[in-house]
C-alpha cells in the first residue's frame, strides 16, 4: 500500500504538471493521453519516490493528494510563464506591425492573438519536440521529487516570490525577442513622420500600414532564425526555476 500511495501522489503531481506546462498542455493532445502520460511517468519515477515514503491514514493521504496537486500546478505554471515570453513577443510584434486588428481566439492553444503570436507559439512548441527540450522539462520535474518529496507540501511564500520574479523575466524576455522588429518599426514611423513634415500632401497613414506590414514580414525572419537559441535559453531558465522551488 505504501508503494501504491507514493506512486499515486507522484502521478497527481506529474498529471497536474503536464496539463499546465508546455508543450504537453497543447489542447491537440487529448486529456486522456495526458492522464496516461502522467500515470506512465509516475510509474517510471516510482523507484525515486517510494524509498523513504511512509504509509499514511486516509485523511493525511487525501491532504497529501491535494498538496501534490498544488505542487504540480505551481511547477507547471512556472514553466508556462517562462514560455509565455515567446507568445508575448509575437503579440508585441502584432501590435507594432498592424496585425493586431485581425485577432482571433485559437481553441487549440487557448490563446487569443493575431498571426505572429500564434506562429511564435506553435514554433516554440515544435522546437521543444524537435530539439528534445521537452526532455529537459521532464528532467526538471523528476528532479523536483528530490527537492520536494511526495507529501511534503510546498513553500508557498518562496514559490510566490519565484512567480513574481518569473513574471518580470517573462516581460523582459518578450521585449528582448521582439526588440529588433520594434526598432525597425519605430524607425519606419519616425521616417513617415519626417516625410509628412517635408511633403504634407502625402497621406502618411495610408503609406504606413502597408509599409509596416511589409517590414514586419521581411524582418520577422531575423527573429524566427534566432528562435532555436531563444527556446533553448527559455528551456534552461524554466528548468532552473523548477529546481529553485522548495
Question: What's this, in brief?
Answer:
Helices cover 77% and strands 2% of the residues. The model has no long low-confidence stretch (mean pLDDT 81).
**Order of helix and strand elements from N to C terminus:** HHHHEEHHHHH
Largest sheet entry: 2 strands, antiparallel
Shape: elongated
What proportion of the residues form beta strands (DSSP E)? under 5%
Structural class: mainly alpha
* Unreliable parts: none
Q: Give the count of structural domains.
A: 1
Average pLDDT over all residues: 81
Estimate percent helicity. over 70%
In what order do the strands lie side by side in the largest sheet? Answer: 1-2
Tell me the number of helical segments per DSSP (H or I, 4 or more residues long).
9
Distance between the termini: 27 Å
Explain this structure.
The chain is mainly alpha-helical and 246 residues long. It has one domain. Helix content is 77%, strand content 2%. The protein has 9 helices and 2 strands; from the N terminus they run ααααββααααα. It has helices at 2-20, 31-44, 46-49, 58-97, 115-130, 133-147, 156-198, 204-225, 227-243; strands at 104-106, 111-113. It has a two-stranded antiparallel sheet with strand order 1-2. The longest helix is centred in the last third of the chain and has 43 residues, at 156-198. The chain is elongated and about 80 Å long. The two termini are 27 Å apart. The model has no long low-confidence stretch (mean pLDDT 81).
